[in-house]
């Protein structure tokens, strides 16, 4: 798995965007099936997936939620952009606009709010 990336390290503030890229592998799907007991043929059999109308085998739903990749081996790019940052009681209430892309097409988008203890970027997490 690749980590978060951007051009410059720094702090979260309005308008900054964080990007993440991830490719789910056969090993990811197999390992997840062991803990979830999800052995649906759509995850392991290309013919079954094709007969169900899919291009290829699918990544399990909850594993998909990790970054919204749909097909095994498909590269997904996830972005979150801070659209509102407000300090409140020594913490930060942050609203994000989020999107995931595959082949430059948006596959899902939405908004989320979170409470952060700091606006500092950690380790490989950096903001553009």
Automatic annotation (TrEMBL):
SUPFAM superfamilies recorded: Thioesterase/thiol ester dehydrase-isomerase
Listed name of the protein: MaoC-like domain-containing protein
Family annotation (Pfam families): MaoC_dehydratas (PF01575)
GO cellular component, one term: mitochondrion
BP term (GO), one: fatty acid biosynthetic process
PANTHER family hit by this protein: HYDROXYACYL-THIOESTER DEHYDRATASE TYPE 2, MITOCHONDRIAL, HYDROXYACYL-THIOESTER DEHYDRATASE TYPE 2, MITOCHONDRIAL-RELATED
Domain of life per record: Eukaryota
Residues annotated as domain MaoC-like: 20-92
Coiled-coil ranges (or none): none
Molecular-function annotations in GO: (3R)-hydroxyacyl-[acyl-carrier-protein] dehydratase activity
């Amino acid at each position: 798995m690749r980590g978060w990336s951007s051009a410059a390290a720094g702090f979260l503030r309005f308008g900054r965007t964080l990007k993440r890229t991830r490719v789910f592998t056969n090993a990811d799907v197999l390992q997840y099936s062991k803990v979830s007991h999800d052995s649906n043929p759509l995850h392991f059999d290309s013919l079954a997936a094709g007969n169900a109308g899919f291009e290829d085998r699918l990544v399990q739903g909850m594993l998909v939620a990790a970054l919204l990749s749909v097909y095994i081996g498909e590269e997904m790019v996830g972005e979150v952009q801070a659209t509102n940052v407000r300090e409140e009681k020594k913490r930060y209430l942050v609203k994000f606009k989020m999107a995931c892309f595959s082949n430059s097409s948006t596959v899902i988008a939405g908004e989320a709010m979170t409470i952060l203890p700091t606006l500092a970027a950690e380790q490989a997490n950096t903001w553009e």
